[in-house]
Amino acid sequence: MRRVRILFYWLFFNKNNINFFELLKFLIKPKVDVIAKKFIKKIDSSDEYNKVTFLNLNRELYWPKKFSVSGIFQVTAETFDSNDWHYYQYDKTQVEKGEILLDIGTAEGLFPLVVLDKCSHIYMVEPSQYFYNSLNKSFEQNKEKTTIFNLAVGNKKDKVFFNEDSLDGQISNDSKASRSIDVETVDSLIGDNKITYLKADIEGFEYEMLQGAKETISKNKPKIAITTYHKQNNPDEIIALIKSFVPEYNYFIKGIHGEEPKPVMIHFWI
User: Fold this and answer.
1) Distance from the Cα of residue 162 to its chain's centroid
2) φ/ψ of residue 218, rounded to 5
3) SS3 for 200?
4) Distance CA 132, CA 149 (A)
5) Which of 5, 122, 169, 228 has its CA at 20 to 30 Å from residue 200's CA atom?
6) How far apart are CA 73 and CA 108, in angstroms?
7) What confidence score (pLDDT) does residue 165 get?
8) Are 220 and 196 in contact (CB under 8 A)?
9) DSSP 3-state assignment of 118?
10) Which residues of 196-210 are buried (b: 16+ CB within 10 A; e: fewer)?
11) By the 8 A CB rule, do 121 and 147 touch?
């Protein structure tokens, strides 16, 4: 049904830089677990984690057993399959040697794990305690070039309730079902440190994050790969905000979301 909706959106709403052949490839592609298994060597289970070994990666990913292995397949396809509309490294937003990555909404950390050797440093921001613990295990041998923050980011310093039970992780109003976490701005978190690449997928709070990243983006002019398909996202507002910081940014929208005809990603570069 999702693929039918996307075909309908492509025909009658927005093509979002998807040509006919890319659409056709999407409509007939295998299910996500089939794609992911092309890149996964094995998954070993222990008490707390599933340890994932990949065919072309010399380090393992630790996935909390709290969450279904179907999530492993999803992020593997998004990270390794260059035809996936959620793929971060579009032609103009490739991670290059010496990159300083700020990964907001790191989750399990597969993207930074894949690009680790290219980066001189990686900052990771992840509010989930489950993923924060697994990130520390996945990057245990690389502490000198990684910094992991267990908090959320927004447009002001704050405290919010965060629902730990969801794989996606959501801000919640229910204190009984959540724990209180700190919210910082990107500008206060990064300060005078340099970044050259900003990747963000934070479940609809991308705009608020960007509002708190004005100085960081204006000063560093990083490549940006940001998701725009969540219900709260307005892609036009995100484009306008980023270009108000740095008018010379080029941008490229990509993909069609299954729930409404929004782009999946927007890529920015100078």
Assistant:
1) 18
2) -60, -40
3) strand
4) 8
5) 5
6) 12
7) 77
8) yes
9) helix
10) bbbbbbbbbbbbbbb
11) yes
- Token output for 53: 């070994």
CA distance 230 to 228: 6
Q: Which helix (H) or strand (E) holds 152?
A: strand 152-153
Q: Are 65 and 44 in contact (CB under 8 A)?
A: no
CA-based max dimension of the chain: 50
**Does the domain formed by 2-269 have CATH 3.40.50.2300?**
no
Low-confidence ranges of the chain (pLDDT < 50): none
Helices (H), the chain: 2-12, 20-28, 32-36, 70-80, 110-115, 129-138, 186-190, 206-211, 214-220, 235-245
Exposure of 255 by Cβ count < 10 A (0-12 exposed, 13-18 middle, 19+ buried)? buried
**190 neighbors 207 (Cβ within 8 angstroms):** no
Alpha helices in 64-197 (DSSP H): 70-80, 110-115, 129-138, 186-190
What residues contact 251, with CB distance under 8 A and at least 6 apart? 239, 242, 243, 266, 267, 268, 269
Q: Where are the domains of the chain?
A: 2-269
Nearest to 79 by CA among 97, 67, 61: 61
pLDDT at 167: 72
Alpha helices in 139-246 (DSSP H): 186-190, 206-211, 214-220, 235-245
Q: Is the pTM of this model over 0.85?
A: yes
Q: What is the pLDDT of residue 176?
A: 62
